[in-house]
Amino acid sequence: MEALKKITNNCRHATFLIEKKLIGRLTLRERIFLRIHLFGCGVCQLYQWQTQKINIMVRQLLHGSAAQDAKLDENFKKELQERIEDELNKN
C-alpha cells in the first residue's frame, strides 16, 4: 500500500511539473525529477503529450480567426445550466 501511495504521489508531482513547464521554467531539480519519472511512467508520458496538444489547440483557437466565431450552442448552455441546478439541488 505504501509503494502505491509513493507512485501516485510521484505522478501527482510529475503532472504538476508538466503543467508548470507549460507556463514557466522548471528548476534543475524539477527537470531531473520529471525526466526520470517520464522515462519510466507511460501514463505521465501520455498526459504530457495530451497536455501539449491541448495547449497548442487552445492557443490556435484563441489567437486564430476562429476565436471570434467560437460560441456555445444555446441549447447546450441551457442543458448545462439545468444539470448544474439539478446537482446543486441534490445537496
Protein traits:
5 helices; 91 residues; flat; mainly alpha
Give an overview in words.
The structure is a single chain. The protein is mainly alpha-helical. The protein is 86% helix and 0% strand. Helix 2 crosses helix 3. The longest helix is centred in the N-terminal third of the chain and has 22 residues. The radius of gyration is 19 Å and the shape is flat. The mean pLDDT is 83.
Any chance you could write out the topology, listing elements then pairs?
Elements: H1 2-23, H2 28-40, H3 42-63, H4 66-69, H5 74-90
Structure summarized in a few sentences:
It contains five helices and no strands.
Rounded Rg: 19 Å
> Which percent range describes the beta-strand content?
under 5%
Helix content: over 70%
Termini gap: 33 Å
Mean pLDDT: 83
Unreliable stretches covering 5 or more consecutive residues: none
The computed structural class is: mainly alpha
> Given the C-alpha coordinates, what overall shape results?
flat
Largest sheet: none
Helix count, DSSP H or I runs of 4 or more residues: 5
Oligomer: single chain
Task: Please give the number of β-strands.
Answer: 0
Instruction: Give the SSE order as H and E letters.
Output: HHHHH
